[in-house]
Amino acid sequence: MLINETDVKVRYQETDQMGVVYHANYLVWFEIGRTNLIEDLGFNYADMEAEGVVSPVTDLDVKYKRPLRYGQTATVKTVIQEYTGFRVVYRYEVYNEEGELAVSGTTSHVCVKKSNFRPISIKKHFPDWHEAYQKAMED
What we know:
InterPro entries: 4-hydroxybenzoyl-CoA_TE, HotDog_dom_sf, YbgC/YbaW. Helices cover 27% and strands 37% of the residues. The protein is built from four helices and seven strands. The protein has helices spanning 25-40, 45-50, 122-125, 127-138; strands at residues 4-9, 53-54, 57-64, 73-83, 87-95, 101-113, 119-120. Strands 1, 2, 3, 4, 5, 6 and 7 form a seven-stranded antiparallel sheet that branches. Strand 4 (73-83) and strand 5 (87-95) form a beta hairpin.
């Protein structure tokens, strides 16, 4: 299984009044990990969008286990948990510098035409992505 590991330095503006990373910022980190994983596969969202297709989040699940604070470095590990040819579920694990799991989560996505938000088949419209996703789950 292909795993992308991305380090993220916690910036001051990402923390809340309690001095810990504000919960919504993990979603940005998930997107960074997801984008990097897709680039590891040899693709990028800009090419998909240039063809009039976008990939919105349809479901989100996040579990917070340990806080991260300003100045620390987090490691975001991203994998493709599930792929059906139509829907993709990415799994994320965010670790602190001690290697302890701080946050875990998943996001589900489908591809839709930007013009009308009607779903399309990844398998049919992007066969190279389809093959790469299947292979990434096997490795």
